[in-house]
Design goal:
- By secondary structure, this protein is α/β, with parallel strands linked by helices.
- It folds into four domains: 165 residues, no CATH class; 123 residues, Arc Repressor Mutant, subunit A (Orthogonal Bundle), CATH 1.10.10.2090; 59 residues; 149 residues, Restriction Endonuclease.
- Helix content is 45%, strand content 9%.
- It contains 21 helices and ten strands.
- Helix 7 packs antiparallel against helix 8.
- The chain starts with 16 loop residues before the first helix and ends in a 6-residue tail after the last strand.
Length: 517
């Protein structure tokens, strides 16, 4: 029995969940899972072919790797085993991801509903101690929102929280807060003498050189899951709520839904846990047997290939290039692929790519070019501008955009930092090289409507720094966090925004807020 929180981690990040789920759906849905060893091995093969699992010798040939990935998607409430047939089925949350809904929104909901006890935590081979009755990610968010705590480190999560946070009572919460504050002053000396006996790893051994390793590995994965929600970010070892997400966090914490009951009843629990944000109840009748035809199998393979592509690029419509790429991967005829994609994803699915875009905004200079190119794609494919990646020219902004419909151009500078501030050097570059020397890299004759910075987040003085550039150049300007940029992408299609709306949003002469969108 595990005497601490537990999340399974075939991969430490959740980015590949849609891909794994699609691979899983193709091979395993509507097949008997229990005892189907060949099916387990086929799934391992498929994961390796898709680059989702490392290739390697399988000494026991029992499909153990497949079972680990099955546990992963099951623990997040995306699949369940139907009691009456023993067959694997998608929950509504799993279906939503497969239908192209934003995996961030679906998985965010699943992460904050994640609880002990659950069907997964009680299962054989996991068995998290029954003293835990807690939603771990909600609890962590509550701590991060507490002005006495403000941030958490992986060490605090590993040594104090996953071992001692048993429930959501005020008494337990205060005990953990006091523990953290004491640990920050005194360190490991505060641990009880039998700490390693109480909280030993599932293997039961203790590595004398790295005695906390199993707990630190767990804490690292927990933070990765929490980061996936795009509400928090790790910076120099400290996990904090993103400033422009604080209201969303407080809103989320203000409602405390009841725990999901009957965790010992697998199908009942999973179907209740696996409700996506758009449903209150799972009323599907899944007992009817379907005849699996060659066309259904082909459609599933096309779906899988499409989802893999949607994680790499923002797809707003079904194009010839996309059809060709999927034809090359699957070997099916263009006509079948086009019919399938137009039926399943008529408007594409930008949301899947936004996990990647969010992460790019915090990676510093190393992958700045990817962040710039992704911004070009968003302005081009989502907002309908002509967009160019002009950064490589030198002494130029990263992105130049043109609105044919509204007759203006604008410049965007990407900054992959969590707290970007416009230094004196960057101020001069924007004024003299980018704005005043526009004709050096732009052949457009229409007026320059605005300049803008896109970053992970901004320093406290960003509004006055933007205004300084506006005052000198008489060109409107702004700064937008990657979180609000993602929100704008979501709203653009929902609300039928135009290039004029984009101009208004980006011309506020300060940081763009959620209320501006």
């Amino acid at each position: 029995m595990l005497n601490y929180w537990w999340v399974t981690r075939p991969k430490r990040k959740l980015n590949s969940i849609p891909d794994v789920l699609a691979t899983f759906a193709e091979l395993s849905l509507d097949q008997e899972w229990q005892g189907q060893r060949d099916s387990h091995l086929s799934f391992e093969d498929a994961l390796e072919q898709a680059g989702l699992k490392r290739k390697g010798e399988r000494r026991d040939q029992t499909g153990g790797g497949a079972r680990t990935y099955k546990a992963w998607v099951e623990s997040l409430g995306l699949i369940f085993t139907q009691e009456s047939t023993g067959k694997i089925k998608l929950t509504l949350a799993g279906e939503a991801i497969m239908e192209g809904e934003s995996p961030i929104e679906v998985l965010k909901s699943q992460i904050f509903k994640y609880q002990f006890p659950s069907s997964f935590s009680l299962s054989r081979g996991v068995q998290v101690a029954q003293r835990f009755k807690i939603r771990p990610f909600r609890f962590l968010l509550k701590l991060l929102n507490d002005p006495d705590i403000e941030y958490l480190t992986e060490e605090e999560i590993a040594k104090l929280i996953v071992t001692k946070a048993e429930n959501e009572t005020e008494k337990c919460y205060k005990y953990i807060v006091n523990n953290i504050l004491e640990f920050r002053q005194k360190g490991d000396i505060i641990h009880e003498e039998d700490f390693f006996d109480k909280y030993k790893s599932s293997k039961g051994d203790v590595n004398p050189e790295y005695p906390y390793r199993h707990l630190m590995d767990l804490a690292n994965t927990i933070v990765n899951w929490l980061e996936y929600t795009q509400l928090v970010k790790r910076d120099t070892g400290e996990v904090r709520i993103l400033e422009d997400k604080r209201l969303e966090v407080q809103s989320l914490l203000s409602v405390s839904p009841p725990f999901i009951d009957r965790p010992e009843q697998h199908e009942y629990f999973q179907r209740k846990y696996g409700l996506d944000p758009k449903h209150k109840k799972d009323t599907r009748n899944l007992t009817e047997t379907k005849t699996i035809t060659a066309k259904i199998i082909a459609e599933q393979k096309i779906k899988q290939s499409y989802i893999a592509e949607s994680l790499k690029q923002p797809i707003t419509k079904i194009t010839t290039a996309l059809i060709d790429k999927i034809a090359e991967k699957t070997g099916f005829e263009d006509k079948l692929i086009e019919e399938t994609l137009l039926k399943l994803y008529p408007r594409g699915s930008v949301g899947a790519f936004m996990t990647e875009y969010f992460e790019m905004a915090f990676k510093g200079r190393d992958e700045a070019s990817d962040f710039e190119k992704a911004t070009v794609e968003l302005f081009q494919n989502v907002f309908g501008f002509e967009a160019k990646h002009v950064g490589p020219i030198g002494l130029t902004p990263d992105v130049l955009i043109l609105s044919d419909t509204d007759g203006y151009q604008a410049i965007i500078d990407n900054k992959a930092y969590s707290k970007y501030t416009i230094s004196n050097d960057h101020h001069n570059r924007m004024v003299h090289n980018y704005i005043k020397d526009l004709n050096r890299y732009s052949s457009y004759t229409v007026p320059l409507a605005f300049f803008s910075y896109i970053a992970g987040g901004f320093g406290k003085n960003i509004n006055s720094q933007v205004m300084d550039i506006v005052n000198v150049t008489k060109v409107s300007g702004s700064a937008i966090s990657v979180s609000n940029m993602i929100k704008l992408v979501e709203l653009y299609e929902q609300k039928n925004y135009t290039n004029k709306k984009i101009r208004d949003v980006f011309s506020v002469n300060r940081q763009i807020l959620l209320s501006d969108l």
